[in-house]
Write a structure and sequence with these properties.
This protein is an all-alpha fold. It has one domain: Tetracycline Repressor, domain 2, CATH 1.10.357.10. Helix 1 crosses helix 2, helix 2 packs across helix 7 and helix 7 crosses helix 9. The longest helix has 27 residues.
Length: 208
């Protein structure tokens, strides 16, 4: 039998999908502890019993959000890897920065959810986590920092984490950083990409 998440994916206009989208947005804005099922139900415009009927408890819905997020990021990384395969490190980074930045700016809750999980004091209460180590390995191989996932050095992982965290901080910190730069959102996104390329491409090509 299909899971609630599978049903939501198959029917993007269904009530299950609407609840999932609202939950993802609110968990990304307020974290697990700061989000209630009542908030999610109110956002969708339904009563609380309808939410429980479709998704069960708050933790069930949160875990579905995280599973959906994991799969979505994995698909995005595979899309990037397919495009940059065989290219120079400079081109790989340029394309990856553009694609990942566009994806994260279009879905700011992704960065927020991952950062919330980094710093959450309640990680052990969940049966599922965001697959950051797997993402790091995939990026390291795609960037040519390792031949395969079994031979990734600690230094390579640290360098990928530097890239990963730089992007996340620019995305999640937009409401704080953008007024400091006094630019509109379009210009801010351009500046973020330009800055990441300015810092990261010379650093990685020096190692090529």
């Amino acid at each position: 039998m299909s899971s609630p998440l599978e049903k939501a994916r198959l029917a993007p206009d269904s009530m299950k999908a609407r609840i999932l989208a609202a939950a993802r947005r609110l968990f990304g804005g307020y974290g697990y502890q700061g989000t209630t099922t009542r908030m999610i139900a109110h956002d969708v415009g339904i009563d609380i019993s309808t939410l429980y009927y479709h998704w069960g408890e708050k933790q069930d819905l949160y875990e579905a959000v995280i599973m959906d997020l994991n799969d979505e990021i994995q698909l995005k990384l595979k899309e990037v890897e397919k495009i940059v395969h065989g290219k120079s490190v400079a081109i790989r980074l340029e394309v990856a920065i553009d694609m990942i930045s566009d994806y994260l700016f279009d879905n700011p809750e992704v960065s927020n959810l991952i950062l919330y999980r980094y710093f959450s004091k309640n990680k052990d209460e969940f049966g599922i986590d965001i697959h950051v180590p797997g993402y790091i390995s995939n990026i390291a191989v795609a960037m040519g920092l390792a031949m395969d996932k079994k031979s990734i050095s600690v230094q390579a992982k640290a360098r990928v984490l530097a890239v990963w965290n730089s992007v996340f901080n620019f995305i999640s910190g937009e409401t704080y950083f953008r007024p400091m730069l006094d630019v509109d959102r379009k210009k801010y996104i351009e500046l973020v990409k330009e800055t990441l390329k300015f810092i990261l491409i010379p650093a990685f090509t020096r190692l090529d």
